[in-house]
Structures are given as C-alpha cells and as structure tokens.
Specification:
By secondary structure, this protein is of the alpha+beta class. The strands form five sheets. Strands 8-9-10-11-19-16-15-14 form an eight-stranded antiparallel beta sheet, with no helix packed on it. Strands 7, 12, 13, 17 and 18 form a five-stranded antiparallel beta sheet that branches. Helix 2 runs antiparallel to helix 3 and helix 2 packs parallel to helix 4. It is globular and about 80 Å long.
C-alpha cells in the first residue's frame, strides 16, 4: 500500500515521459524520466541567468551571505546538474548547455567582469560552491575543462586556489577543501596535500560506527551523513584517481556499504524520505548516496532496488509540485515553506538536490538502469531497526508504507558546556516519512513541564542511554524516556524528576494537509486526529495520566507537509513520577488504538501491553 499524501491540484508530472511499468513496476520511472526532469530544472533557470551566465539570481529572500554569493550558488549548484547531464549523455546534449556554463566560468572567474564571483575567503559560502564547481569540472572534463581557453583555465584555478591555506569550518566543510584542492592537483595547479590529508583524517575523527558520521564534534546526525560525509569521499576518489591512498578509499567504501544497508530503510513506500534534520529543502538529495554506492562499487543493494528507492523519492516530490510551475526548486518541502530553511539558505540553495542526479554518470546500459525494479524494505515487510551510533530506532510498516524514526540521540548541539535553543528538526522524540514537525515550535512529539505562564521546558541536550532491539532511551533535563516500538505503535515510558506541582504536557504526531483541517476527537486520557485520506495520529495515556484531558492543537501555516496541521496532546495538572503513553501514527485502517495498557511494580518495573496483546517489560532507570 502506498502511504497517503497531501492533496494536489491537477497532475504536476504531465510534462514527463509515459511511465514504464514493465521495467519499473513500482514507480514507472526510468532513466528517461531522470533526464527529462534534469532538463526541466536546467531550463527553468534560464530566465534568472545574468547576461553572461555567471550567476543565477533566483526569486526569494537572500541568505545571510547576500545576493552576490547567492548568485554564485545558483551557478555552482546547477552546474553540478548540468555536468551530470552532459557527462551522462557522453556530451550528446544541446551545445547551448555546454556553452552557457563555459561562458559562466569565464565571466565568473574574471575579476574585472561585472558578473565576477565573490572570492573564496575564510569560512565563507564560496567555499561550499567551489567544491560543486570542482566536481562539475572533473565530471564534465572532456566537454568543458578540456575545451576552455588557457587564460580561462588560469582564471578558474586562480579563483579556486584561494582555498589553499584558508580557515575552514570544522564540519563537512573540511571536505569542500579536500575536493577543491584535489581538483587543483589534477590540473597541475598549486594545492596543499597536507590540507587534503588533514580533511580526510578529520572525517575519521567523526566516525561513530555502523556507517554513521557526526557532522563535526557533538551529536550531529542527519542527512549530511548521506549527501556530504559519505558522498564527497567517493567523488574525491574519482578526482584523485591513482593519487588516492588505497587504504583510505577502501575504508570509505566499507563505511558507505554499511551505511546504505541502513539508509535504504529511510524511504517510505511513496518515496518520501524521513523528515529530520537541517537543509531539508535539498529534498531528493537523499538519493545521492544510493548512486554513490554504485559508482564506488560499495553498495549492498541490488541494482533494481537502488533505482526503485532513488526514482521513488524523485517521483514523490515531482507528484507534489516539485519543481514548481516555473521549473524552479523553492525554499520548502513541497510548497514554499521558509521555516525548513536556515540562515545560510538562499533562493538557489535547494539546487544541492542536483546531487540526486549522480546516477546519470552511470551508462544507460548499467544494470542500475536496465534491471527490473525491486521492492524497497518497507514495500514488503515491517521492520524494526536500532541504530546505536545516532541513538535512533526505526520502525516501519508495510501496510501503510510509513517509516518512523524515534530520536534518542541527535540534538545538533555543540559539545558541553555550549548550549543552544531546541531545533524542531532535531529535538523531537520522533520523525517520519509521512509527517513534518511543527515549525518553529509546537507540542508535537515532545514531553514538557510547563511553567506558570505555560512555557514548555525544552528538550535541550539529549543524553543517550542506548538503542537496542525494539527500544531506545535517553535523558533530557529532569526527564528520562524509554521508547518501546512494536509494529505501528510506540509506547513511551517517562520518569520525571521535577517539581511535583508542575503541569506536564505530551504531544503526539502532527499531521498536516493543504486542503482541510483534520478531524479530531478527544476524551479523558486520549486524543486523536485524522486526515481526510485516513492518516491518523493518536495519543493514549496508559499510566499516570489520571485526570488528564485530551486536546488536539490545530494550527495554520506551521507545517512543511501542509497548511493545516493537528497535534493530539495530553495535559496533566501536576506531574507524577511515571507516565506511560501510547503514541500512534498510521494510515492502516486495521490498526487499533484500544486494548493497550501499562502497570508499574513497586521497584519501578513497567509492564506494557500493546493493542495486539504483545507484552514488554521496561526495567527501572539505567537500563533498557
């Protein structure tokens, strides 16, 4: 069964080639669909190009780097897409595409040209864009770099060379330096082998096992693991060729293979990726490591499954109006929605989604394009998967195709003693492929003590207590939470150590749609919201919620999935030591939210009964 989705006007995919359900029985999409959508994206940018094509000034609010940098970003990120399209066709594209990026390179790197690019300086956004340009130049080398006049090549290397010796943010940005300087090495330009090696060594420092890197020090787990920390080592090795250390390349390949074994579980049956972390406006860039694994011969997935997952996520967004009627990628998820952006996000930032088209570098005769599609994990079976490194617990259900991520480990805070405000994309107890968190703030998937004025306590720094089997646990502030999952159900056992007279509130999943507000029902100790297509969020107090009244919080304009959102909540006038809650997100009409229960023994052991009668036991604190 395909997971439900938001209401859509018309058919946004009517301009694409006909579906081929013989080769691709699940998505209907083949290589020609990828090529057609790439062309649509590239054509959509043309009205916003500067006269000599060095910048693309797209509509929308500027990033904190300003319009000049944003214009470079438009060139660099779309150049990635153009390079994959050019190289994937063996240069058999319209000459205008090659000519416009050649012209843009000449104008952008000429410091005397009106459209010249901002220079690469310490910790500045052009560092990010330089890496995209370096990758694109390498992958399209026979059709662009090799054909540039010598003075233009000199301008390009001069502009890129300002990366050498520059101060770089200690995060995935270290890999931008690795990529850029390796390209300089490949063309015989000045570079620092020590800086390349140091960047790769820093990546090793961040590896936490199981295929997971943190994006810099701290617990910063998100899709940057997929579209940056695993992707750039593969692209670096392609640029470096025989200069790459074989042991380093082998280590990266082993980690990528292990990661892809997990990453395949992050896509719902409708192609939607789990909505967690920053830069979500990059959307289908989540498919990039799938292709990288094939390019590097480092994937455990059969070719038909790789294409099913990648095509599924690209099709998911295309069916929901991405790109828009102008052929543009907006700052948002489906429709424009600025709260999913960050300070660094500008109008062209979404074009990091170009990384999803990496698969076009694989020849059309490769099995990844010729094999019949195979189902993804969620298409055929329910799955529960503990991920100890990030402190996550995945549970997905084949009946509705939804993937849920229970979060007991990623807060994206710098190491202590630094503090920061909660981010809705990291601080929630759970995320899924069918929902998005209320943004910038909301009660969804959060338990909080309420101040006298109603202000909820933040989750703050998450202290993981482990993830194993079907459960995970963490502590934040004065609250310890153990999550136990079974099928579509999650039971949360909360142990509270706070003022006994403080009110406490817990929220379930926020469901959203553009068309109509969700239907809702409430009662003592329970609350329920249902979208028109059947997607249901429910919250049921199993223990300690005596006297709590259920409510559903309806909001307009706070959710990336849809304009109208609804969150079931329970609120108790005074906190008690132990609270047990059933949390449900499901589109399966057969899923029950009744029949669950919980008891607490004198030693604090909690006995849980799920709605289908399955029983679990949660021991007192300090263990799972």
């Amino acid at each position: 069964m395909t997971a439900p989705h938001v209401s859509l006007p018309g058919d946004p995919t009517h301009l694409l080639p006909p579906s081929d359900h013989g080769l691709s029985p699940l998505t209907g999409w083949t290589r020609v669909h990828w090529e057609a959508l790439a062309d649509r994206l590239l054509d959509g940018l043309l009205p916003y190009a500067t006269p000599d094509f060095a910048q693309y000034r797209l509509p929308g609010p500027p990033s904190h780097s300003g319009p000049w940098s944003d214009g470079l970003e438009g060139f660099a990120r779309s150049f990635l897409l153009a390079a994959f399209r050019i190289a994937g066709s063996g240069g058999r594209v319209g000459p205008a595409l090659i000519e416009r990026y050649a012209a843009g390179l000449a104008a952008g790197t000429d410091p005397h040209h009106a459209e010249h690019w901002p220079p690469i300086t310490d910790r500045a956004q052009p560092m990010v864009e330089a890496a995209s340009i370096a990758i694109a130049l390498h992958e399209s080398r026979p059709w662009l770099w090799d054909q540039l006049d010598e003075p233009v090549r000199g301008q390009v290397t001069e502009w890129l060379s300002h990366f050498v010796g520059a101060d770089v943010n200690d995060s995935n940005w270290r890999l931008f330096q690795v990529i850029t300087e390796e390209f300089l090495a490949s063309v015989g330009a000045p570079h620092s082998r020590a800086e390349i090696d140091a960047g790769l060594a820093r990546l090793d420092d961040w590896y936490r096992g199981g295929g997971w890197y943190t994006d810099g020090d701290g617990r910063k787990f998100d899709y940057y693991n997929a579209w940056a920390l695993h992707l750039y080592p593969v692209l670096w090795a392609r640029i470096a060729g025989p200069r790459a250390d074989p042991d380093t390349v082998a280590r990266h390949r082993t980690r990528l293979r292990e990661f892809l074994g997990v990453h395949q579980h992050f896509f719902g049956s409708d192609g939607a990726p789990v909505h967690q972390g920053r830069s979500l406006t990059y959307r289908f860039a989540t498919a990039a490591p799938l292709w990288a694994g094939v390019l590097a011969d480092a994937t455990p997935l059969p070719p038909g499954r790789t294409r099913r997952l990648a095509s599924g996520t690209l099709k998911h967004f295309a069916e929901r109006g991405v790109p828009d009627e102008r052929g543009l990628l907006s700052l948002g998820w489906y429709r424009p929605f600025l709260p999913v952006s960050q300070r660094y996000s500008g109008p062209a930032s979404p074009y990091w989604a170009s990384k999803a088209f990496l698969g076009l570098l694989l020849p059309e005769t490769h099995p990844v394009w010729t094999a019949t599609e195979e189902p993804g994990p969620v298409d055929t079976a329910d799955t529960t998967l503990a991920l100890p490194a990030p402190g996550w617990l995945l549970h997905s259900t084949a009946a509705d195709g939804i993937v849920r991520l229970v979060n007991h480990g990623s807060d994206r805070l710098p190491p202590p003693p630094a503090t920061a405000e909660d981010s809705p994309h990291y601080a929630k107890l759970a995320y899924s492929s069918a929902t998005a968190p209320e943004t910038p703030t909301g009660p969804d998937n959060h338990i909080a003590l309420l101040a006298a004025d109603g202000t909820p306590s933040p989750r703050g720094r998450i202290r993981p207590l482990g993830a194993d089997g079907g459960r995970a646990a963490s502590r934040h502030g004065g609250i310890e939470t153990v999550s136990v999952v079974h099928g579509p159900w999650e039971v949360r056992v909360h142990r509270l150590d706070g003022p006994p007279d403080s009110p406490v509130r817990e929220g379930g999943w926020a469901i959203a749609d553009d068309s109509t507000p969700a239907e809702s029902r409430t009662g003592p100790g329970r609350a329920w919201a249902r979208r028109a297509d059947g997607l249901t969020s429910a919250l049921v107090g199993l223990y300690g919620w005596d006297g709590a009244e259920g409510t559903v919080v309806h909001v307009v304009g706070a959710n990336a999935v849809g304009e109208h959102s609804a969150t079931p909540c329970l609120e108790l006038a005074a906190a008690v030591p132990v609270l047990v809650t059933l949390v449900v997100l499901s589109a399966d009409p057969q899923v029950s939210i009744t029949g669950a229960g919980a008891t607490v023994a004198g030693d604090g052991t909690v006995e849980i009964r799920f709605p289908d009668g399955t029983r679990e036991r949660v021991s007192p604190p300090e263990s799972l």
